[in-house]
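ERR on first pass: missing label on line 2. Operator R.T. fixed the label and resubmitted. Corrected input:
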Amino acid sequence: MTSRTAADRWTYWQSIDSGRLLLMAAAGMLIIAAFAHTTISSTNHIAWRPALAFGGFIALGELLRLALPGGREAAPIAMVGAMSYALLINVAHAGPANQEALLVVAVAAVGMTVGALPHVAAGRPAGLTGMCTRLVAVACVAFAFRPIVHDIRSEPWYVAMAVMVVVVVFGWLVDTVVGALIRADDIGSRFSVALVDEIRLQWLLGAAICASVLITVFGAEVMGIAELAVFVGPLLVTQLAFRRYAGIRATYLQTVRSLSRVTEVAGYVEEGHSQRVSRLAVAIGRVLGMTEPDLLALEYAALMHDIGQLSLRDPIPGGATLLAPRADQERIAELGADIIREAGVLDDVAELVRCQSWPASRDPAPPRGSMIIRAANAFDDMVGGGADRERSSAALDRMRQDPAEYDSLIVRALAEVAGRRPLWRL
Amino acid sequence: MISWPARLYTALVVALTAVLVARMPLHALHTGRIPDFWFELAILQALFLVCDSTPSSLAAQRAKWSPSSSATLAAVVLLGPVAAALVGAVSLISIKHQLRATERLFNGAMGALSGLAAGRAYAALHGPVGLPVFGKDPWMIIGPFAAAAAAHVVINQGLIWSFYRLNRGGQTLRREALESSLPLLLVSDLGYAALGLIIASLWRVMGPFSAVLVLVPLFVARWAMGQFAEERRAYAATMNALCRAVETKDFYTRGHGDRVSRGAGMIARQIGMRQGRTEAIMVAGMLHDVGKLGVPTQVLQKTGPLLEDELAAIQLHPMRGLEIVREIGFLNEALAGIMHHHERIDGRGYPMGFAGHEIPEFARIIAVADAFDSMTSTRSYRQARTIDAAVAELRRGAGTQFDPLLVEAFIAALAVEDWPLPEPAVVPADRGTVTAQDHDDPTAPLRVVEFP
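pass 2 clean. output:
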């Protein structure tokens, strides 16, 4: 038993590190190659003004990173700068842009590093994984486009633009796929689901990046390098809009997380119960391949699943709803759903809370999220906050023997999640 | 309804615009010099219309913003001042719903006027009209363009603001909402104004397609702004629902959080607190008694004198509240307000016994609103007091229990705004718990068992 868990743990850590390691190795090799090549081949041919201007732009973008919902981090302005530099055809008054792909990588690497330094100095995480991902994506764009730039130059603008769109979409896909791979590893979800989530969340930002790259490249052809200074305004305002959106999402989640603890403070449930149930439920949902919007509703519902107890006159002894008679359980669920429905914006969450005490065999079947909450709640009522393996396996056994109450797929996922160490990562 | 001064003002602006446009010399129309003048004008007008018809909400629900100025400013560069005025005038037929005729007229005149002003500013600094040709020194165009953008923003915002100032009746809320989002409005306006020059420059490469290309990031930004507004509404609604749920335990204190939040907001505005802090204190007011959930029901319901530890349980509730909301990141200052809302100026409050200005400002504000709402609500042991009686009581406690300045600020605010008196509590005979002694009530202190 112990040896198997140890092996599991080993493969778990190994799988995380190998993905990251590979990415960092790739980025590192790119950087070494870029600098070696740039310094060995004569530096006389480098057009310094564009290199410095775009490098500075990238540094600014890296400095103003954007936190997106779900703990993601992006640097859209840095991406715009780096990809535009990779796709530059002509610069007004500076003639054709002839930088090689490896120079693009070198400029991007220096810009990103400079932009990341203030983050490190302020004690924030350096975000190395994100930077490596972006660098690899930019390198893909540069290697795809720089060799053909001479042929593109003589084509009309719409042909050039079509080629650029293809290349940028390719670069964006690289960024997204690598991001999804790392994320799937980190949070223990399936790659396919992580990829779909990533695309769903990022495609709009990706479209904005793509259009911005085209604007930058063609704008530089007319206006020269000064265009970067003009265009940075609209880019900053767009990013500000995204930042506010991500900020309110985070505040929302934090507030629900905090307020869900009222049942604990009131002594209705054990300390930390809502938080544990929600983490368990989300982890189970991920194993079962639920998508991010569904997981968010599940998380909210799990956090607030006991809120109906506020309407009870006296706490249930020990707070364990598992031991209460079925009718009481259903009444608490209904009361909780009523409270949540009051908000008017969380009807799907209210529905999950309402059906949380329904057995799996019920007809019509309860929603999957409700069954997950039921299983997670029962598990936590039986095992509690401690990490007692004996109690945990006893609880799982008891749930396995009751397939009419607990869906067997969900119990299997619960067993997988409960066997993990560290228990639940967010 | 739109007030008469605002209508008069609209008429003035329309007349002024008509005169100014009519007085422009004919050659300022540039039709002769620019081959596709009318076609380009139509494209830019279409761009303006698309942007203007899909505005997005800013911080406040009713403050709308659209990036349509980029079309006007592109016209300044490409087609000259009169064309810019013609682009701005399209606001007249914007497909936004719920616009009254006066508002449309005003918007159209305002768009034309700010377009004209931008064009004149651009011409004054010798900005060349037509497809931009950047020489060795790109600032020869960028400089005049910056002046045009600034003129556009100033005229545009100036006209809007004076309109709202004049159009008072029933519009105060809207004005307040606008004021809160003004910095954001200005930043967004200036940022997107730069797109005008981008559109004009790209026109040389790709013609009208530049307008299409620029629309993409614009619409993405608009989407993000819309999402922000939506999430914000959802957040507020959820917060309200959860707070109400907390209050369901007690029939007498229902709506208490809501009203204290409102009262704290009134005081904050009265003493000129800036918008961000006012919002924070309203959240704090909403949540100030969350910790009461940690007080056992029997203690809350007890009619007789309280035992020492029962009193302690009640006096602990600000700390319990803090415990619950501590992890809400943005609350910072509000946390102090929640924790110290039962401190007294004379230092005899709880939980820390702070005195005077040791007590955080948020806490002093909440204390006033809290006590006032308690006194004007019905309790199981007494009827609700009238507002005048409660005000007198606040004045009596000023300097000992309350901060006198804040009490006066609250009374001044009460003179202007209505106070939502709670509905008399109806307690069903069979269920529900009621507070027998209200810890918020300054006129009926908690009674504690005294040992001889």
